[in-house]
Design goal:
The chain is an alpha+beta fold. It is 25% helix and 26% strand. Strand 11, helix 6 and strand 12 form a beta-alpha-beta unit. The N and C termini lie far apart (70 Å).
């Protein structure tokens, strides 16, 4: 099915199942421990051996030799795989990092070898005996020190243009009566998901099966084929359940490569899980940025010039962090400029993490907007409303498909009690605590891409959906079931959903906030095919037959849906593809975040007390799981604002706080009352589902709302994340007793 014109009325619009707050259909399996994650599968064709990955202990250089003698003599050791006996191992097409070092070492923690033994404990012990001799080389580990050598990166598939210009930014900024010109920074951040990177690999002849937590199985099969130099059709990837990823399991990483190499050498199944301390330096992360924001406005608050420059670093050939993406779309302004620059750093690869680009860009843009509002003596909400745009600011001929930013701001301000806020900082207190409120806009792109599915109907009236879409904890199983139930006119408990197997029809997988809208649209297309098959079988007109309550009605005739499949199973399979509506319309999601904080006047301790998110993100397919997505994103925003920081040891050339004991993330006591409001919205330009994604919108804007609230509480403006006590204490105002 090809979607080329805005959607009209269709069966989804009945909203008998879609649009209702629905418990996750996979919830019982997850809460009872019966949902198998990658490392837990039992029926794998034999008894598994265990692999333990050894990472490089230097940040840059060459491997001279590996003394394996003690490790091979250790109890239970079966084999050791390194570049010397692995066969060809290439980099994949998505990640630039080579999964296996040798002889060159590109960064600390890069896989040097995998030690295989009968038990995990034996493999881990033997790995400690491996003696790797290196020749170290100087490396680059400090972003601030190399910004002068940064270049405009090559244009990639993701992230938009690296440099844009509209009008005369420099001239307009110089002429503006009110300006902000500040530099901000965001640190390296880790995905820190619960489930580690883990894979079970099995070879049968030249066919490879991997149970692995990969978000995009189509990318995974493509990339693993290139890495191992084997045909893509010889690879099967299974990822029925994934225990969190946040972009950190987009495609093949060292665990899958290690397991596949080890299983091939050994001739039996091998299980590999990356040790948590290795994950931070071996896999990917959100890269640090240094950003300069310049905004010029007239005295009434009209933005006349807006410029955003950002510097990030990566391995040679890697991608830059597209931190200017939001600035290009969020506010009006006749004269505009954005510029991304990329430097070479010899650290683990920087790559996608939840809302890549938008999350980091909004962390700085929305502080700059707050600073501009203060200089103007203008309410921050009203400043944003005054600079709303109904069209793409860079392409005025291109309207937004939907844009309820102003509505989000007004609803949020009313609900949060924004009018009670003191415009002057450090004016509200409770005992020894300064109290402040802050806000920020939110924006995240609404991409959608082709997706396929297969839907089966059996003689019991059961509908089974098959697609290689994944569920990373977001609720994919449930919204796909809701879509099929709505389309086929059956109750939710009459639908079975099978996901996470690349033998199923291809979806785009989970990521980029495209998963929900894309995968459900593929299911919609397949259900249309199945409806046509059912109608023809029953001698009805597919265009006018009504599917409802387990029945199919055509005129005065009503028969059970199941009767169409009494003789044999009926199958509908199709994919949804798209025309150029995304080029005709700017498709985005919008929101607003409001936060209240308390800051202790003696210690500088920060407590987030209230949080509100208002979101406009197309049709909300399942308000319950969508709310979970947003509140989870809000938690991540608290981490980004106050604690998350992968600290680079510039001498050792690595992230030094490489475990969950030292990489701080929010815990239950850090999170206060959270409220989420979804505005009514459908976007007919997206697909027949009229839906968009929401999971990354919920993060974009949270951190700067907290930063702005801290400023309102204390009068201390922190422009370098995370906002920690050492940055507050020297400037905290005295509190009169």
């Amino acid at each position: 099915m090809r979607f080329e014109t805005p959607a009209g009325s269709n069966p989804i619009d009945r909203l008998k199942v879609v649009g209702h707050a629905t418990d996750r259909i996979d919830g019982p399996r997850k809460t009872t421990g019966t949902a198998p994650y990658a490392y837990e599968y039992q029926d794998i064709g034999g008894r598994a051996a265990y692999g333990f990955v050894v990472g490089a202990s230097i940040p840059k250089g060459r491997i001279l030799r590996i003394d394996e003698s003690q490790a091979r003599a250790a109890p239970g050791v079966l084999e050791i795989v390194s570049a010397g006996n692995s066969g060809p191992v290439a980099a994949g097409p998505f990640y630039v990092d080579r999964p296996l070092a040798g002889p060159q070492v590109d960064h600390y923690g890069q896989m040097v070898a995998v030690v295989i033994a009968e038990t995990f404990e034996q493999a881990r012990f033997a790995a400690s005996l491996l003696d790797v001799h290196y020749a170290a080389e100087p490396g680059s580990f400090d972003l601030a020190a190399v910004t002068g050598s940064a270049i405009t990166p090559r244009q990639g598939e993701f992230g938009g243009p690296q440099q844009t210009s509209v009008g005369d930014f420099e001239g307009a900024f110089a002429a503006a009566p009110v300006t902000v010109d500040q530099t901000y920074s965001t640190p390296d951040q880790a995905h820190a998901m619960m489930e580690p990177h883990a894979t079970i690999a099995v070879w049968k002849g030249n066919k490879l099966t991997c149970w692995c937590p990969i978000q995009q199985l189509n990318w995974g099969a493509r990339d693993l084929a290139q890495i191992l130099s084997i045909p893509r059709e010889n690879i099967r990837l299974i990822a029925q359940y994934i225990g969190g990823s946040f972009g950190g399991k987009g495609t093949v990483l060292a665990d899958t490569v290690a397991a596949a190499l080890a299983a091939r050498v050994l001739g039996r199944p091998v299980k590999v899980a990356l040790a948590r301390p290795l994950m931070f330096n071996n896999t990917t992360h959100r890269p640090a940025t240094i950003q300069r924001l310049r905004i010029g406005a007239t005295r009434d608050g009209t933005i006349t010039a807006i410029g955003h420059e950002s510097w990030s670093g990566n391995l040679r050939g890697g991608r830059g962090e597209s931190a200017t993406a939001s600035t290009r779309m969020l506010y009006a302004g006749a004269n505009r400029m954005t510029h991304l620059r990329l430097a070479v750093l010899d650290l683990a690869e920087g790559n996608a993490m939840r809302a890549p680009g938008e999350a980091t860009g909004m962390m700085t843009l929305e502080i700059a907007m707050d600073e501009l509002a203060e200089k103007l003596g203008m309410d921050p909400v009203e400043l944003r409303i005054a600079n709303d745009s109904r069209v793409d600011p860079e392409k005025p001929e291109r309207p937004f498909s939907t844009r309820q930013l102003v509505e989000c701001l007004r609803v949020g301000a009313e609900r949060f009690g924004w009018s009670r806020r003191s415009a002057r900082p450090a004016m509200q207190r409770e005992g020894r605590w300064w109290i402040g409120t802050g806000m920020a806009s939110a924006i995240r792109g609404a991409p959608i891409t082709k997706s396929a599915a297969r839907v089966r109907l059996d003689a019991r009236g059961m509908v089974t959906v098959e697609t290689d879409m994944t569920d990373v904890g977001t609720g994919s199983y449930t919204i796909i079931a809701q879509t099929a139930a709505e389309m086929m006119g059956v109750a939710l408990d009459r639908v079975v959903v099978k996901l996470g197997d690349n033998l199923f029809p291809e979806s785009p997988g989970s990521g980029g906030q495209w998963g929900a809208a894309s995968a459900t649209s593929g299911v919609y297309a397949a259900c249309v095919k199945l409806r046509e098959a059912v109608a023809r079988k029953l001698g009805m007109d597919p265009g006018t037959a009504v599917f409802q309550d387990g029945l199919v009605q055509y005129g005065d005739r009503r028969v059970s849906l199941a009767s169409a499949a009494l003789a044999s199973e009926l199958v509908g399979e199709d994919e949804m593809t798209y025309g150029d509506l995304s080029r005709q319309y700017a498709q985005q999601t919008f929101g607003a975040h409001f936060v209240e904080v308390a800051v202790n006047s003696d210690t500088g301790e920060i407590r987030v007390r209230r949080m509100l998110a208002v979101c406009a993100a197309g049709r909300i397919l399942n308000p319950k799981s969508a709310r979970s997505q947003v509140i989870g994103a809000m938690v991540m925003g608290v981490g980004a604002a106050l604690m998350e920081h992968l600290v680079v040891d510039k001498r050792a050339g690595c992230f030094i706080n490489h475990d969950l004991a030292n990489y701080e993330v929010p815990v239950h006591s850090d999170i206060p009352e959270q409220e989420v409001i979804f505005l009514d919205e459908v976007d007919t330009t997206m697909s027949p589902m009229k839906a968009k994604g929401v999971g990354e919108l919920g993060l974009s804007g949270v951190a700067p709302a907290i930063a702005n609230a801290i400023y309102n509480a204390t009068g201390v403006r922190v422009r370098h994340y995370p906002i920690t006590l050492d940055k507050l204490l020297p400037e905290l105002p005295e509190m009169a007793t």
